[in-house]
Amino acid sequence: MNGPDLTKTLPIRKTPSLVVSHSDKIQNSLSLSSFSATPPPLNKLLPLPVAMEAYREKARERERVGESSMAKGSIGISVTLSLLLLLPLLVLETAAVEKNYELKKQQRYRNAYATMMYMGTPRDYEFYVAIRVMLRSLSNLHVEADLVVIASPDVPLRWVQTLEQEDGAKVVRVENVNNPYRNQANFDKRFKLTLNKLYAWSLVDYDRVVMLDADNLFLQKTDELFQCGQFCAAFINPCIFHTGLFVLQPSMKVFKDLLHEVEIGRDNPDGADQGFISGYFSDLLDQPLFHPPSNGSKLNGHYRLPLGYQMDASYYYLKLHWSVPCGPNSVITFPGAAWLKPWYWWSWPVLPLGISWHARRHQTLGYGAEMPVILIQALIYLGIIAMTRLTRPNISKLCYRRSDKSINLIHTILKMIAVWSIVAAYVVPFVLIPHTVHPILGWSLYLLGSFALSFVAITALFLPMVPVLAPWLGIFGVLFVMAFPWYQNGVVRALSVFAYAFCVAPFAWVSLVKVMASIQAAVEREAYFPKIG
Question: How big is the chain by its Cα radius of gyration, in Å?
Fold first, then answer.
């Protein structure tokens, strides 16, 4: 059959530029975003093989994009599901850790060292500092027991938070026990709330509790006390045990009975915890001496503690060293006068052991709270000395001669001013110094302050320097004599202080006479009373 050769008429494969152009159009037309339902014109259709190849290439590209998107989506879903599954576990684990931490914080051991804190005395802050030092001393000894503070409701919240957060103590708030002995003739008001110590028997979460006063100084670990019986205490008096440290087994039955005895007014010689508890356990003197079992077991019954657990500081002053053969030398107590407790800066060198307490405070709590006040006072005293040296005020300009009667009155007033200014120079610095600073800082600041104020009186009233500063020199000398570290025993030390006072007394008297004569001469000086023109 003769006919036209279509391959020659339409040489498609010989026009690559046309094929490429139409292929691009096919690819664009096959994209999902530009697909149209209207068919393209016939003159723009490509041959079938070329169109099919372009379609297959586009399909493979879409498949690759889809697989990639599915893979990314699968990864995202997997991560999300994993987080959703892990989140409850993390929350539960965190809650468990916090709960365990709180439990450990509140009660980690079966035994406890406890003390009490109440308000209403002039020395509340000093006892607060003493309690903190004692608690930190116990922590530094790594005792295996909780630290508990039995606090009255009026203890400041910031103190409670400090005890809990910084000192690691568990604070138990209690209502004050009504003291029916407060109207006794010999009652000391500072002991009004000491019966709160009875709350130690209510700490029934513990097997044993060692109840402590704030004036205990621990020399070593005393955890063996938790092996003692239901009640144990030491006798520092031949007939009366001391309630500054005692061991007890908590019991609500005993606690309620103690409160009942308080309500009915059981005989109490001093109206405080000492007389009440010693009367309640009146048979302790007849009980055996405590010796901790070597196997670590707990004893039953009542026991006397060896003196080494309550070494009275007054025993130290006889020989200036400890020698207590019965039991370990573990705890020092300071049951003396309240104004000579070891945390007061003036207690040393009057009582040599005060420096030991401050050494323990320096190791544990430090003196950061008092240092700003110390620095400010020191700068003020130095400024007073400098200003007095530069300016010499003349009080005579304030006085004028009027009549003989007015002159006599002025003489009397000036004498009183001079005397009281000298007295104030030695009293005011003592009052202003923070009570619980280190003794060396306290005495140094006191000597600086008394010198500065004495210098003002000397300059303003034209008084002789050495006689006015005689008390200052005497105080410095007696501090040196008392602090001398090489005495053989306390008797030699006491005799040395007495000899110093005996030798200084004549000089003090002569200085006093000279000062009074100088004051008399100063107020009678004509220059002080110029006539009005």
Answer: 45
